[in-house]
Amino acid sequence: MKSLGKPLSRRAFAGSALAAGAFAATRGMAQTPGPMPTMDSQMGPFYPLGYSGEDDFDMTMLKGRTARALGEVIEVTGRVLDRYGNPMKNAAIEIWQANSVGRYDHANDQNPAPLDPNFQGVARLVTGTSGEWRIRTIKPKFYDTPLGVRTPHIHFDVTGTAQKLVTQMYFPEETEANAKDFLYKDLGQSAPTLVAQRAAPAIYRWDIVLMDAAG
Fold first, then answer.
1. Domain ranges in the chain?
2. Can 27 be counted among the known catalytic residues?
3. Of the residues 79, 103, 106, 155, which is catalytic?
4. How many whole angstroms separate alpha carbon 33 and alpha carbon 63?
5. I need a labelling partner for 96 at 20 to 30 A (CA). Which of 6, 11, 24, 189 fits?
6. Annotated catalytic, 150?
7. pLDDT, tens digit, for every residue of 188-199?
């Protein structure tokens, strides 16, 4: 019978146990799933192609004007993250939406609801070092389409280091309207990735998770 070698000393045994534990922990960390990627969605017919107006983070006020846009003023904040949950610095975000009565300032929108001359409607942002972004805007209203009523939503076009994501953000208090929206229903189990969290009565938080890795 072959010898199994000398028995491990107490110190050696403890060291091997710690190494094994560290290896197991490392494996566990490597296998920990990242955040659920944000689902893509349709760009829609009202993308502001060729828009050259004001596009800062505050969509409720235009420079040189004293009147604020009509409707409920809200703030939406969040971060752009990669598939591992790391913040993505310098990600480009373009945002557009309907106004407080469901009308886009776009030639294709035949909605008879009035335009709001004080509503910017479009914002272009670049994320900071922690991937953060923020807008001040008006909560959009639902509107009719030939395919059905669209629930209140905000459009996002996000460009990371290796991926471009076009998507839409929905509001958590619009549960009933969301469930009836034909685009929202098509999301299935991915729908929660497009619903913001309500942090306060007029403040929403929504993180955007891209499939690429932060550079």
1. 73-209
2. no
3. 155
4. 45
5. 189
6. yes
7. 989 989 999 999
